[in-house]
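@channel sequence for tomorrow's demo:
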Amino acid sequence: MKGTITRRGKASWRLKYDLPRDSQTGKRRVAYKTVRGKRAAAEAELRAILHKQDKGISVDPSQITVGAYLDDWLATVAPQRVAPKALERYHGIVRNQIKPHLGTVGLQKLRPADVDRWIKLLLAEGKLASRTIRHAHGVLRTAINHAAAIEVVERNVATLIRPPAGERKEIEILAADQIAATLDKLRDHPSLFPIVALALGTGARRGEIAALRWSDLDLDGATVRIERALEQTKAGLRIKAPKTAAGRRTVSLPAFTVTALRDHRRKALELRLALGIGALPADAPVFGDHEGNWPSPYSISDRWRDAVKNRALPKVTFHALRHSHASALIAARLDVVAISRRLGHASPALTLSVYGHLFSNSDDKAAAAIDAAFGL
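C-alpha coordinates (generated this afternoon):
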Protein backbone atom coordinates (compact mmCIF):
# COMPACT_ATOMS: atom_id res chain seq x y z
CA MET A 1 0.00 0.00 0.00
CA LYS A 2 1.17 3.55 -0.79
CA GLY A 3 0.28 7.00 0.51
CA THR A 4 1.05 10.69 -0.03
CA ILE A 5 0.81 13.90 2.00
CA THR A 6 -0.39 17.20 0.57
CA ARG A 7 -0.48 20.57 2.37
CA ARG A 8 -4.03 21.93 2.68
CA GLY A 9 -3.33 24.95 4.86
CA LYS A 10 -0.80 26.47 7.23
CA ALA A 11 -1.16 23.59 9.67
CA SER A 12 -3.39 21.20 7.73
CA TRP A 13 -2.42 18.16 5.68
CA ARG A 14 -4.35 15.78 3.47
CA LEU A 15 -3.39 12.13 3.54
CA LYS A 16 -4.12 10.08 0.46
CA TYR A 17 -3.58 6.33 0.65
CA ASP A 18 -4.45 3.19 -1.26
CA LEU A 19 -7.10 0.70 -0.26
CA PRO A 20 -7.23 -2.85 -1.63
CA ARG A 21 -8.74 -3.05 -5.10
CA ASP A 22 -12.45 -3.64 -5.32
CA SER A 23 -13.03 -7.38 -4.94
CA GLN A 24 -15.75 -7.39 -7.62
CA THR A 25 -14.37 -5.01 -10.28
CA GLY A 26 -10.65 -4.98 -9.53
CA LYS A 27 -10.65 -1.18 -9.66
CA ARG A 28 -8.20 0.84 -7.60
CA ARG A 29 -9.58 2.51 -4.46
CA VAL A 30 -8.13 5.36 -2.41
CA ALA A 31 -9.02 7.05 0.87
CA TYR A 32 -8.38 10.54 2.24
CA LYS A 33 -7.88 11.90 5.73
CA THR A 34 -7.12 15.39 7.03
CA VAL A 35 -4.56 15.85 9.82
CA ARG A 36 -3.92 19.15 11.60
CA GLY A 37 -0.60 20.11 13.11
CA LYS A 38 2.99 19.81 11.96
CA ARG A 39 4.00 17.72 8.96
CA ALA A 40 5.67 15.26 11.31
CA ALA A 41 2.25 14.49 12.80
CA ALA A 42 0.83 13.86 9.34
CA GLU A 43 3.75 11.58 8.47
CA ALA A 44 3.26 9.63 11.70
CA GLU A 45 -0.46 9.25 11.02
CA LEU A 46 0.17 7.99 7.48
CA ARG A 47 2.74 5.48 8.71
CA ALA A 48 0.25 4.24 11.31
CA ILE A 49 -2.50 3.81 8.69
CA LEU A 50 -0.23 1.90 6.30
CA HIS A 51 1.06 -0.22 9.18
CA LYS A 52 -2.48 -1.15 10.19
CA GLN A 53 -3.30 -2.13 6.63
CA ASP A 54 -0.22 -4.34 6.48
CA LYS A 55 -1.40 -6.08 9.65
CA GLY A 56 -4.77 -7.00 8.23
CA ILE A 57 -7.21 -4.09 8.18
CA SER A 58 -7.93 -3.02 4.63
CA VAL A 59 -10.77 -0.56 5.14
CA ASP A 60 -10.64 3.03 6.40
CA PRO A 61 -10.88 2.51 10.20
CA SER A 62 -12.79 5.73 10.80
CA GLN A 63 -15.61 4.66 8.47
CA ILE A 64 -15.76 0.90 8.91
CA THR A 65 -18.86 -0.74 10.36
CA VAL A 66 -18.86 -3.88 12.47
CA GLY A 67 -20.21 -5.82 9.49
CA ALA A 68 -17.59 -4.53 7.06
CA TYR A 69 -14.80 -5.12 9.56
CA LEU A 70 -15.95 -8.71 10.18
CA ASP A 71 -16.07 -9.37 6.43
CA ASP A 72 -12.54 -8.05 6.08
CA TRP A 73 -11.34 -9.99 9.14
CA LEU A 74 -12.85 -13.21 7.79
CA ALA A 75 -11.13 -12.66 4.45
CA THR A 76 -7.67 -11.61 5.66
CA VAL A 77 -6.99 -12.58 9.27
CA ALA A 78 -9.14 -15.55 10.32
CA PRO A 79 -7.91 -17.87 7.50
CA GLN A 80 -4.39 -17.58 8.93
CA ARG A 81 -5.51 -18.61 12.40
CA VAL A 82 -8.21 -21.27 12.14
CA ALA A 83 -8.78 -24.41 10.10
CA PRO A 84 -11.08 -24.27 7.06
CA LYS A 85 -13.90 -26.08 8.87
CA ALA A 86 -13.82 -23.61 11.75
CA LEU A 87 -13.67 -20.76 9.24
CA GLU A 88 -16.88 -22.02 7.65
CA ARG A 89 -18.55 -21.92 11.07
CA TYR A 90 -17.23 -18.40 11.64
CA HIS A 91 -18.76 -17.25 8.35
CA GLY A 92 -22.12 -18.73 9.34
CA ILE A 93 -22.06 -17.13 12.79
CA VAL A 94 -21.14 -13.71 11.40
CA ARG A 95 -23.79 -13.96 8.67
CA ASN A 96 -26.63 -15.25 10.84
CA GLN A 97 -26.02 -14.10 14.41
CA ILE A 98 -23.86 -10.97 14.38
CA LYS A 99 -24.36 -8.88 11.23
CA PRO A 100 -28.20 -8.80 11.35
CA HIS A 101 -28.02 -7.06 14.73
CA LEU A 102 -24.66 -5.26 14.93
CA GLY A 103 -23.56 -5.07 11.31
CA THR A 104 -24.46 -1.41 10.71
CA VAL A 105 -22.91 -0.10 13.94
CA GLY A 106 -19.64 1.76 13.47
CA LEU A 107 -16.80 -0.38 14.78
CA GLN A 108 -15.25 2.54 16.67
CA LYS A 109 -18.69 3.46 18.05
CA LEU A 110 -19.50 -0.03 19.35
CA ARG A 111 -20.09 0.10 23.11
CA PRO A 112 -20.48 -2.57 25.80
CA ALA A 113 -24.18 -1.67 25.98
CA ASP A 114 -24.57 -2.62 22.30
CA VAL A 115 -23.03 -6.04 22.93
CA ASP A 116 -25.18 -6.52 26.02
CA ARG A 117 -28.38 -5.67 24.10
CA TRP A 118 -27.35 -8.01 21.31
CA ILE A 119 -26.90 -10.98 23.64
CA LYS A 120 -30.19 -10.24 25.44
CA LEU A 121 -31.97 -10.04 22.08
CA LEU A 122 -30.61 -13.41 20.96
CA LEU A 123 -31.74 -14.92 24.26
CA ALA A 124 -35.18 -13.30 24.02
CA GLU A 125 -35.74 -14.65 20.52
CA GLY A 126 -35.45 -18.14 21.99
CA LYS A 127 -34.19 -19.65 18.74
CA LEU A 128 -30.62 -20.33 19.80
CA ALA A 129 -29.14 -22.46 22.54
CA SER A 130 -26.98 -20.59 25.03
CA ARG A 131 -24.01 -22.56 23.71
CA THR A 132 -24.58 -21.12 20.21
CA ILE A 133 -24.83 -17.60 21.65
CA ARG A 134 -21.56 -18.16 23.51
CA HIS A 135 -19.93 -19.20 20.24
CA ALA A 136 -21.24 -16.06 18.53
CA HIS A 137 -19.92 -13.90 21.36
CA GLY A 138 -16.59 -15.70 21.11
CA VAL A 139 -16.26 -14.96 17.39
CA LEU A 140 -17.07 -11.28 17.96
CA ARG A 141 -14.62 -11.09 20.85
CA THR A 142 -11.85 -12.76 18.83
CA ALA A 143 -12.39 -10.49 15.84
CA ILE A 144 -12.44 -7.26 17.84
CA ASN A 145 -9.42 -8.42 19.79
CA HIS A 146 -7.47 -8.16 16.54
CA ALA A 147 -8.85 -4.66 15.93
CA ALA A 148 -7.68 -3.64 19.41
CA ALA A 149 -4.26 -5.22 18.87
CA ILE A 150 -3.63 -3.11 15.76
CA GLU A 151 -5.15 -0.04 17.45
CA VAL A 152 -8.17 0.39 15.21
CA VAL A 153 -10.24 0.48 18.42
CA GLU A 154 -9.02 1.47 21.87
CA ARG A 155 -10.41 -1.58 23.65
CA ASN A 156 -12.28 -4.78 23.02
CA VAL A 157 -15.76 -3.99 24.31
CA ALA A 158 -16.89 -7.60 23.78
CA THR A 159 -14.62 -8.75 26.61
CA LEU A 160 -16.54 -6.55 29.06
CA ILE A 161 -19.83 -8.43 28.56
CA ARG A 162 -20.12 -12.03 29.64
CA PRO A 163 -22.08 -14.45 27.46
CA PRO A 164 -24.80 -16.64 29.00
CA ALA A 165 -23.68 -19.55 31.13
CA GLY A 166 -23.93 -22.88 29.40
CA GLU A 167 -26.40 -25.51 30.40
CA ARG A 168 -24.60 -28.74 31.27
CA LYS A 169 -25.52 -31.53 28.91
CA GLU A 170 -24.89 -35.05 30.04
CA ILE A 171 -22.63 -36.92 27.66
CA GLU A 172 -24.02 -39.95 25.85
CA ILE A 173 -22.40 -43.28 26.64
CA LEU A 174 -23.10 -46.95 26.08
CA ALA A 175 -23.31 -49.24 29.09
CA ALA A 176 -21.06 -52.30 29.11
CA ASP A 177 -23.89 -54.61 28.06
CA GLN A 178 -24.89 -52.20 25.28
CA ILE A 179 -21.34 -52.20 23.91
CA ALA A 180 -21.31 -55.99 23.60
CA ALA A 181 -24.78 -56.00 22.03
CA THR A 182 -23.84 -53.22 19.58
CA LEU A 183 -20.76 -55.07 18.38
CA ASP A 184 -22.76 -58.27 18.00
CA LYS A 185 -25.45 -56.55 15.91
CA LEU A 186 -22.82 -54.98 13.64
CA ARG A 187 -20.63 -58.02 13.19
CA ASP A 188 -21.92 -58.69 9.65
CA HIS A 189 -21.72 -55.02 8.61
CA PRO A 190 -18.47 -55.04 6.58
CA SER A 191 -17.89 -51.29 6.34
CA LEU A 192 -19.04 -50.21 9.82
CA PHE A 193 -18.05 -53.00 12.19
CA PRO A 194 -14.26 -52.42 12.08
CA ILE A 195 -14.78 -48.66 12.43
CA VAL A 196 -16.98 -49.10 15.51
CA ALA A 197 -14.57 -51.66 16.96
CA LEU A 198 -11.74 -49.16 16.56
CA ALA A 199 -13.76 -46.27 17.99
CA LEU A 200 -14.80 -48.27 21.05
CA GLY A 201 -11.35 -49.80 21.47
CA THR A 202 -9.33 -46.59 21.26
CA GLY A 203 -11.62 -43.61 21.83
CA ALA A 204 -10.31 -42.07 18.59
CA ARG A 205 -12.27 -39.24 17.03
CA ARG A 206 -14.20 -39.73 13.81
CA GLY A 207 -11.78 -37.60 11.77
CA GLU A 208 -8.78 -39.46 13.22
CA ILE A 209 -10.28 -42.80 12.27
CA ALA A 210 -11.06 -41.63 8.74
CA ALA A 211 -7.45 -40.42 8.27
CA LEU A 212 -5.76 -43.69 9.24
CA ARG A 213 -3.41 -45.39 6.78
CA TRP A 214 -2.43 -49.04 6.98
CA SER A 215 1.10 -47.94 7.84
CA ASP A 216 -0.31 -46.39 11.04
CA LEU A 217 -1.39 -49.82 12.29
CA ASP A 218 0.85 -52.37 13.93
CA LEU A 219 -1.49 -55.31 14.35
CA ASP A 220 1.25 -57.63 15.57
CA GLY A 221 2.21 -55.11 18.24
CA ALA A 222 -1.47 -54.20 18.82
CA THR A 223 -0.99 -50.44 18.48
CA VAL A 224 -2.24 -47.63 16.27
CA ARG A 225 -0.37 -44.39 15.62
CA ILE A 226 -2.66 -41.36 15.40
CA GLU A 227 -0.98 -38.40 13.71
CA ARG A 228 -3.61 -36.66 11.60
CA ALA A 229 -7.33 -36.15 11.07
CA LEU A 230 -9.55 -35.91 8.03
CA GLU A 231 -11.75 -32.83 7.86
CA GLN A 232 -14.71 -32.34 5.55
CA THR A 233 -15.36 -28.81 4.29
CA LYS A 234 -17.40 -27.29 1.46
CA ALA A 235 -14.23 -27.36 -0.62
CA GLY A 236 -13.78 -31.10 -0.06
CA LEU A 237 -11.73 -33.39 2.17
CA ARG A 238 -8.61 -32.08 3.89
CA ILE A 239 -5.93 -33.79 5.98
CA LYS A 240 -5.02 -31.71 9.01
CA ALA A 241 -2.59 -32.02 11.89
CA PRO A 242 -3.83 -32.41 15.48
CA LYS A 243 -4.70 -29.19 17.31
CA THR A 244 -2.05 -29.87 19.96
CA ALA A 245 1.05 -32.01 20.38
CA ALA A 246 -0.99 -34.33 22.61
CA GLY A 247 -3.13 -35.21 19.61
CA ARG A 248 -0.20 -37.18 18.16
CA ARG A 249 -0.16 -40.40 20.11
CA THR A 250 0.27 -44.16 19.94
CA VAL A 251 -2.64 -46.09 21.39
CA SER A 252 -2.69 -49.76 22.37
CA LEU A 253 -5.40 -51.89 20.79
CA PRO A 254 -7.60 -54.35 22.68
CA ALA A 255 -7.83 -57.87 21.31
CA PHE A 256 -11.35 -57.49 19.86
CA THR A 257 -10.24 -54.44 17.85
CA VAL A 258 -7.14 -56.23 16.52
CA THR A 259 -9.31 -59.15 15.41
CA ALA A 260 -11.77 -56.83 13.66
CA LEU A 261 -8.97 -54.98 11.86
CA ARG A 262 -7.24 -58.18 10.77
CA ASP A 263 -10.49 -59.40 9.27
CA HIS A 264 -11.03 -56.03 7.59
CA ARG A 265 -7.53 -56.14 6.10
CA ARG A 266 -8.02 -59.70 4.85
CA LYS A 267 -11.24 -58.72 3.06
CA ALA A 268 -9.59 -55.63 1.54
CA LEU A 269 -6.75 -57.80 0.17
CA GLU A 270 -9.20 -60.35 -1.22
CA LEU A 271 -11.11 -57.62 -3.03
CA ARG A 272 -7.94 -56.16 -4.54
CA LEU A 273 -6.81 -59.59 -5.74
CA ALA A 274 -10.24 -60.27 -7.22
CA LEU A 275 -10.04 -56.95 -9.08
CA GLY A 276 -6.49 -57.66 -10.19
CA ILE A 277 -5.05 -54.48 -8.71
CA GLY A 278 -2.31 -56.06 -6.59
CA ALA A 279 -1.20 -55.77 -3.00
CA LEU A 280 -2.48 -53.30 -0.44
CA PRO A 281 -0.27 -50.16 -0.37
CA ALA A 282 1.06 -49.18 3.05
CA ASP A 283 -0.19 -45.62 2.61
CA ALA A 284 -3.70 -46.67 1.56
CA PRO A 285 -6.56 -45.44 3.77
CA VAL A 286 -7.66 -48.13 6.22
CA PHE A 287 -11.32 -47.35 5.60
CA GLY A 288 -11.13 -45.99 2.05
CA ASP A 289 -12.30 -47.71 -1.12
CA HIS A 290 -10.21 -50.02 -3.30
CA GLU A 291 -9.09 -47.05 -5.41
CA GLY A 292 -7.46 -45.42 -2.40
CA ASN A 293 -10.01 -42.65 -1.89
CA TRP A 294 -10.39 -41.30 1.61
CA PRO A 295 -13.66 -42.01 3.44
CA SER A 296 -15.85 -39.02 4.14
CA PRO A 297 -16.21 -38.38 7.89
CA TYR A 298 -19.84 -37.50 7.23
CA SER A 299 -20.37 -40.88 5.56
CA ILE A 300 -19.20 -42.61 8.75
CA SER A 301 -21.84 -40.78 10.76
CA ASP A 302 -24.44 -41.51 8.08
CA ARG A 303 -23.67 -45.23 8.23
CA TRP A 304 -23.90 -45.15 12.01
CA ARG A 305 -27.30 -43.38 11.94
CA ASP A 306 -28.62 -45.90 9.42
CA ALA A 307 -27.45 -48.77 11.63
CA VAL A 308 -29.06 -47.19 14.70
CA LYS A 309 -32.35 -47.04 12.80
CA ASN A 310 -32.23 -50.38 11.01
CA ARG A 311 -30.45 -52.58 13.53
CA ALA A 312 -32.08 -51.38 16.74
CA LEU A 313 -28.87 -49.93 18.19
CA PRO A 314 -28.87 -47.49 21.15
CA LYS A 315 -29.96 -44.04 19.96
CA VAL A 316 -26.69 -42.20 20.45
CA THR A 317 -24.35 -40.33 18.12
CA PHE A 318 -21.17 -41.83 16.70
CA HIS A 319 -19.17 -39.53 19.02
CA ALA A 320 -20.78 -41.36 21.95
CA LEU A 321 -18.45 -44.27 21.17
CA ARG A 322 -15.50 -42.08 22.19
CA HIS A 323 -17.30 -41.11 25.39
CA SER A 324 -18.08 -44.78 26.05
CA HIS A 325 -14.39 -45.63 25.75
CA ALA A 326 -13.47 -42.90 28.23
CA SER A 327 -16.20 -44.05 30.60
CA ALA A 328 -14.86 -47.60 30.52
CA LEU A 329 -11.36 -46.37 31.37
CA ILE A 330 -12.70 -44.34 34.28
CA ALA A 331 -14.71 -47.32 35.54
CA ALA A 332 -11.50 -49.38 35.39
CA ARG A 333 -9.91 -46.75 37.68
CA LEU A 334 -7.20 -45.61 35.28
CA ASP A 335 -5.67 -42.33 36.40
CA VAL A 336 -6.79 -39.16 34.67
CA VAL A 337 -3.36 -38.47 33.16
CA ALA A 338 -3.31 -41.84 31.38
CA ILE A 339 -6.87 -41.33 30.14
CA SER A 340 -6.05 -37.83 28.90
CA ARG A 341 -3.05 -39.10 26.91
CA ARG A 342 -5.03 -41.92 25.37
CA LEU A 343 -7.81 -39.57 24.26
CA GLY A 344 -5.36 -37.02 22.88
CA HIS A 345 -6.55 -34.23 25.17
CA ALA A 346 -4.35 -31.16 25.52
CA SER A 347 -4.26 -31.62 29.29
CA PRO A 348 -5.83 -33.69 32.10
CA ALA A 349 -7.80 -30.57 33.04
CA LEU A 350 -9.73 -30.90 29.78
CA THR A 351 -10.44 -34.55 30.53
CA LEU A 352 -11.79 -33.63 33.95
CA SER A 353 -13.94 -30.84 32.51
CA VAL A 354 -15.64 -33.33 30.18
CA TYR A 355 -15.72 -36.49 32.30
CA GLY A 356 -15.23 -35.26 35.86
CA HIS A 357 -18.75 -36.29 36.88
CA LEU A 358 -17.92 -39.92 35.99
CA PHE A 359 -15.06 -40.13 38.46
CA SER A 360 -15.98 -41.50 41.87
CA ASN A 361 -16.55 -38.89 44.55
CA SER A 362 -16.11 -41.47 47.26
CA ASP A 363 -13.88 -40.41 50.15
CA ASP A 364 -13.83 -43.87 51.71
CA LYS A 365 -10.14 -44.55 51.08
CA ALA A 366 -8.82 -41.09 51.97
CA ALA A 367 -8.41 -41.65 55.71
CA ALA A 368 -6.79 -45.06 55.18
CA ALA A 369 -4.33 -43.54 52.72
CA ILE A 370 -3.30 -40.88 55.25
CA ASP A 371 -2.85 -43.53 57.95
CA ALA A 372 -0.63 -45.55 55.58
CA ALA A 373 1.41 -42.50 54.57
CA PHE A 374 2.09 -41.54 58.18
CA GLY A 375 2.68 -45.11 59.32
CA LEU A 376 -0.16 -45.01 61.82
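heads up for whoever presents: The chain has three domains: 1-39, 55-160, 176-358.
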